[in-house]
Write a sequence for this structure.
């Protein structure tokens, strides 16, 4: 298992200290780690397990249960495209095909230049403005292929 | 003297440019030396008009929309701060036919108030319900909620008062109020709108629940897909605590109630109440077998109220205006109002709060204006991904819990997704099984395995392999999942499939050759 960099280790310890006194803290800790690092490195699992007095299996089980938690480093930007019914009714499949072709990746993949990760999402709560997309936490509605191209082009190259 | 201009910070409005419009208004006001105060309100729910900009005038709020940043110079040139004429002018907001026909109780302040301001909330009748509640015993509060006829708006429609009564009756050192804000059903956004547009009403509703049943700690379990609602809730909780409405001495009553937001992590199943409790405790969101009910043994093994956002946010109105006033709305066993969400292929998508008793047709055409594409409606799905598809021939059905159940559909959380005649219902049926396979918690076999087998069987039908036999197999599989699953995910995921087979069989037959 890969081990954490010393700075990452310190970060995980700090996040654990912040949350461990609270009831049921594991999801909060994992959110904290992912917010800082962009994903949950495999090396963080034993550190978290020890910090919260859980087994590695329990922590691993939680990390892998939830779609939101990533185990690999994402691209500099994450594009989530809603796949749920409301967006399907307004052309989400066409939009998805366009995004996949434009970025040259399938869902859960990152572009070769590391710029974009493409993820499916099941409802962003923007169903009166379907189809919807989210880029780095920013919500977009009534997204046409042309608008998506503009949004992809406008995303800064660095984070 | 500055003019107040309202530009929504609602995520839906922001998704179509409200942030840029607010910035453009501030910049243009600076250039022209016009004094404006911009309030970032919630959305009125008229999403086809977003970004909807309102100006406070002596005669009331005056609306313009949909506004783009490019429209802003011409709005100033037209004197919009004094309700000047402009092609985007919509007149007085309250006079808009779409809004005037609604009965907004739970959503009375959404889109109206500044969601970050306790003072604004108080000015619009906020905390009146809590004030009344603090003069009552816990049993009297529960009695009022029971008498109002309020049923769980999350989808299960269980009488809220009965749930609270059970928690009230438990002897425990610690009880909890939990709010299920894991609004994952496609076509629904009323929880999001409320949390972003009037978060204090949810906070007040949870506080009243806590006072009623003797719970001192509340948790809002919010889905991770709602970062804007997360920010709005955190701001509002901090403001309520500063103003003395949360904490050790709620509104000077000597009663304690603390509130915290916890984030989910992209698991649809966590909208199921026992799965949500597991997740709140920091575990995999696998459902629990009931009994015991959460009201007896819930979060951390303690008696717990689990209610949806809209349910809890309806409580302040009920306490402030009386149970009878609420029960006077609605019909039969469906009392009060329901915030209905019109979504998908719909011309005027948005939120319509009305008393129970409208037909689907009235909602789709009188409010929704038909499809966005202008093509005929072929099907609507009500109540999210586990809800049945209703064909256009049944649009005269009333939208209430019992009438929809009578045609094999369900109201759920009140979301209606519209499809035009280009929809392929066999594909939608496949999607229902695929979604269940992606989101199954894995605890029970019919859901975990059945959903995957369901996708495979539909794929064979779509490929024209042994069509008749595979359709029969699919029907049997659906029946097994309905009868044998532990919770609503596996138990209801077959509903859209069965309804597609029943009403749109031709979409499956087309591939039989």
């Amino acid at each position: 298992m890969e081990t954490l960099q010393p700075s990452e280790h310190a970060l995980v310890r700090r996040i654990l200290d912040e949350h461990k006194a609270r009831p049921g803290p594991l999801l909060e800790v994992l959110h904290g780690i992912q917010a800082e690092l962009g994903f949950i490195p495999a090396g963080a699992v034993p550190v978290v397990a020890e910090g919260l007095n859980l087994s590695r299996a329990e922590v691993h089980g939680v990390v892998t249960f939830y779609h939101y938690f990533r185990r690999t480093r994402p691209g500099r930007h994450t594009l989530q495209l809603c796949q749920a019914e409301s967006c399907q009714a307004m052309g989400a499949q066409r939009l998805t095909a366009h995004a996949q072709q434009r970025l040259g990746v399938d869902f859960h993949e990152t572009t070769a230049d590391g710029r974009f990760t493409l993820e499916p999402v099941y409802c962003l709560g923007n169903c009166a403005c379907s189809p919807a997309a989210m880029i780095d936490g920013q919500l977009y509605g009534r997204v046409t292929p042309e608008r998506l191209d503009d949004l992809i082009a406008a995303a800064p190259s660095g984070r | 003297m500055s003019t107040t201009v309202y530009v929504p910070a609602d995520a839906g409005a922001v998704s179509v440019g409200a942030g840029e419009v607010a910035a453009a208004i501030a910049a243009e006001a600076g250039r022209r030396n016009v004094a404006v105060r911009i309030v970032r309100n919630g959305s009125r729910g008229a999403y086809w008009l977003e970004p909807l900009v309102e100006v406070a005038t002596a005669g009331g709020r005056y609306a313009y929309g949909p506004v783009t940043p490019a429209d802003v110079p011409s709005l100033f040139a037209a004197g919009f701060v004094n309700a000047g004429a402009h092609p985007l002018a919509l007149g007085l907001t309250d006079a808009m036919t779409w809004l005037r026909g609604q009965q907004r109780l739970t959503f009375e302040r959404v889109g109206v108030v500044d969601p970050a301001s306790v003072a604004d909330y108080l000015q619009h009748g906020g905390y009146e319900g809590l004030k009344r509640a603090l003069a009552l015993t816990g049993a009297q509060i529960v009695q009022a909620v029971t008498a109002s006829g309020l049923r769980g708006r999350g989808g299960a429609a269980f009488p809220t008062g009965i749930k609270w009564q059970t928690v009230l009756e438990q002897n425990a050192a610690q009880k909890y109020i939990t709010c299920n804000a894991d609004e994952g059903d496609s076509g629904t956004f009323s929880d999001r709108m409320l949390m972003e547009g009037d978060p204090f009403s949810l906070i007040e509703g949870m506080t009243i629940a806590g006072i009623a049943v003797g719970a001192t700690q509340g948790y809002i379990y919010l889905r991770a897909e709602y970062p804007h609602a997360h920010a709005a809730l955190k701001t509002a909780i901090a403001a309520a605590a500063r103003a003395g409405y949360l904490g050790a001495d709620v509104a000077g009553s000597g009663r304690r109630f603390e509130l915290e937001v916890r984030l989910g992590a992209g698991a649809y199943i966590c909208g199921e109440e026992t799965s949500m409790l597991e997740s709140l405790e920091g575990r995999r969101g696998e459902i629990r077998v009931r009994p015991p009910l959460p009201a007896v043994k819930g979060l951390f093994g303690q008696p717990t109220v689990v209610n949806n956002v809209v349910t809890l946010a309806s409580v302040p109105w009920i306490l402030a205006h009386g149970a009878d006033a609420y029960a006077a709305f609605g019909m039969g066993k469906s009392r009060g109002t329901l915030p209905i969400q019109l979504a998908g292929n719909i011309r005027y998508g948005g939120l319509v709060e009305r008393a129970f008793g409208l037909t689907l047709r009235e909602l789709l055409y009188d409010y929704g204006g038909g499809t966005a594409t202008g093509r005929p409606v072929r099907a609507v799905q009500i109540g999210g991904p586990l809800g049945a598809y209703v064909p256009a021939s049944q649009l005269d059905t009333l939208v209430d819990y019992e009438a929809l159940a009578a045609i094999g559909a369900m109201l759920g959380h009140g979301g209606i997704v519209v499809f035009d005649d280009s929809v392929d219902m066999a594909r939608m049926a496949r999607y229902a099984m695929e979604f269940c396979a992606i989101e199954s918690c894995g605890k029970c076999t019919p859901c975990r395995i059945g959903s995957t087998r369901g996708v495979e069987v539909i794929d064979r039908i779509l490929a024209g392999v042994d069509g008749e036999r595979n359709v029969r197999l699919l029907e049997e599989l659906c029946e097994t999942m309905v009868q044998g699953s532990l919770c609503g995910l596996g138990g209801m995921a077959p509903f859209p499939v069965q309804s597609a087979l029943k009403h749109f069989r031709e979409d499956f037959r087309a591939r039989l050759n």
User: Anything to note?
Assistant: Chain B is about 40% helix and 15% strand. The longest strand of chain B covers residues 337-344.
